[in-house]
């Protein structure tokens, strides 16, 4: 039994729900009493976008309506597939002025607070989220450079000095 929120699913937990509904529509006998609303565990297990369209998922009215509902269900499944496909956010291309402002602040403070980030974001016409991610990535780059420099210095110290001929 899954809770109303869908349960600890992930993608694998959602697979097959559309097929189960399709099987219910295609079955010859209605598994629910006539006129009963399908607010059952089946509806509760649907992802939230599909729950918004619940009235279209009601089944078991008459055998004549099954063909139309089958088509509606197929359309809803197509909609669900489109919702599940995540579109990638475009990569932000920073201008030279934006990069200069970000780098200047980074040299002053590697961990600016949200107010400082918002102020900078407004000044350089970016979203605060992009500024936050830029700082996160810049700190990672800084740590990487620091490690690389430290390992290069260690290697230089370990090599014996070259003797002249």
UniProtKB/TrEMBL annotation:
Residues 87-146 bind DNA. Keywords: DNA-binding, Homeobox, Nucleus. One of its GO terms (cellular component) is nucleus. One of its GO terms (molecular function) is DNA-binding transcription factor activity, RNA polymerase II-specific. The keyword Lipid metabolism does not apply. It comes from the Eukaryota. Its main location: nucleus. It is found in: Nucleus. Residues 85-145 form the Homeobox domain. May have a role in development. May regulate its own transcription. May bind the bicoid consensus sequence TAATCC. Belongs to the paired homeobox family. Bicoid subfamily. This is Homeobox protein goosecoid-2. The lineage of its organism: Eukaryota, Metazoa, Chordata, Craniata, Vertebrata.
